[in-house]
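Weekly structure sync, notes
Attendees: PL (lead), two postdocs, one rotation student
Agenda item 3: pending single-chain targets
PL asked that the sequence for the first pending target be pasted directly into the notes so everyone works from the same version. It is reproduced below exactly as submitted, 642 residues in total.
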Amino acid sequence: MQVAHAVGRWLLAAGCVLAVAACLAALPNATAHVALPVALASQPVTFQIEPSGLWLMGFGLAPAAFACWLGSPLAQRSGKWQAGAALSLLGALGVFGLQDGMSLLVAWEAMSLGGALMLAGEDAQSTGGRSVLLMLSLLEVGAVALVFAIVLLDRVTGGVGFDVFAARAPHASTAAIWLAGVALLVGFGAKLGLVPFYEWFPRAYSSGSGASGAVFSGVVLNAAYYALSHSWNAWLGIGMHGNAAFGLGILALATGVSSAVLAILYAFQQDDWRTLLSYSSAENASVSVAMLGATQLFRSSGLDDLAGLAWTVALLHLAGHSLAKGALFLVADGVRASTARYDIIPRGWLRTSGFMLGLGAVFAAMSLASVPPQAGFVSEWYVFQSVFQGFHLPSFTGRLVLVLAGAGLALAAAVALATFVKLLGLGLLGIPDVGYVQPIPRRFAVAAGTLGLGVLAVAVGAPLWLDALAGGAQALFHANSPQAMVSGWLLVPLTDKFAFISPSKLVIAMPLLALVPLAMLALAKRYPVRRAPVWFGGTADTDHDAMTTPLTFSNAMRTFYSFVYLPVTSTEREHEQREYFIKRLVFSHGVTDLFERHLFQPIVRSVTSCAGKLRALQSGNLNFYLALIGGLLVAILALTLI
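Predicted structure, written out during the meeting:
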């Protein structure tokens, strides 16, 4: 059985590697248009992946390959995880390449079912499967919205093929395009973690392993964003519906920015690797959705170059995010392999687990915190440069929305920096417990280090990589925005007269800056350094006891944003035989999930109440059933006569 599981992992990993190689070989062009030998309801099924789909799929599959190679540490001997991973990856491939609405829905549901199967094969028993059911229920809300959007587009265009949508949607009414666009945002946003759907992220991710998180935050999230971006920019004929584009742009910006701020605020409060990283995934997806909104605003005003800029920035952002998040999820599995838990606690792993682990973890955390010269810094810089271009919009409302969006994204970026300082400082540094010397296994360090180097390569090689998206931008916007974002080795927002950076040159300059602290270390060897213990209330405690904890690190933010967090604390007392003698105090703390408390729980209570009242229909009384059938017959006859 172990041999079979190992062979399954290797086959999945090899498939991911081959798919990445195929993406690299096909770019910067799309794949060939292939007619598959199947049909759905007489609709021929065809397959083709656009350059932007190849870009997102390739970067998403890179961490998935390592996740499949390492496998899930929670799956034990169950083959469910491998079957779920295979089904999820296959569904994502369909989302990237299938060319009609009906087959897309099948692939979308396969991707959801595969994710649920992955989690069911891991630790679903500890929660009774509630986290998986919550995920599926919210994703099905999105699926219903997708069905509505595709049926509506079929109604107004006369077909379900994407080519039919693109050809005939420009002649549809603006109201229909607006309604379809909102439904698509809800449908695909359910997997992207937009409000209120992001609340399934921490529950589902924390019931699984880091390997599942790497697949979710890489391939699945990228597939969902590609579907949303492609549907808005290609299906809806948005260039011919300026009012719809403007309204959808404002909606996407408001939804994306609010989702990003809420998700990263909740990420900062987490003490579990998986839940913190899951909220961060929702935040990064929301930033990309905000850029999609900016794309629509620019497009509504005929600013196709700026629309192509914002569209490209979102793809660049998700590329770096996939690699960085995959690296940290695999580090989380390494932490679990060392401690049997996913808690963020100081263990000093960067000192005991080798160079590759430190390289990958630091580079990934720097990128997600938008610290130069990593990929996250490049994409965040481009995000703000895109927002700053709002003064080109002729509408005051559009300019105001982009200014407010910039403020919200700045807040999200600042909290993200603090979040990954917490994760790196408290999760990988610190003073380990006395006698604790178990390092993170080397295989996790190698995987994280390789992905971390990939994060740096995305930033340093951006002047080369961006050309891969030129064909997609030209097809959608008739603009060469990706090529205009490069000037030699400089990255510019379409013109070097506005702003510029060069990560390629920063890689050379920053090591030179390291000479300053090295010189200070050399001076420290010549002059004695006086060391004093940390002040700890005047008591002579050890350095380990005086360390900052995750609670104290995040408490100030929790207090300041208490109107968002609505923090809850409780203290339980365990007594000896009499209540006068306290055996133990148990202190617990947490934050309130806004949408679960104010949206999901009321819905669940109402459904439960209705179910209780309708339970009378299952009384088992034959006379009642006969009366019910008689009433239905009378109603049918009455309707027939009318």
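Discussion points:
- Residues 2-33+50-508 form one domain.
- The chain has three domains: 2-33+50-508, 558-590, 594-641.
Action: rotation student to compare against the earlier draft before next sync.
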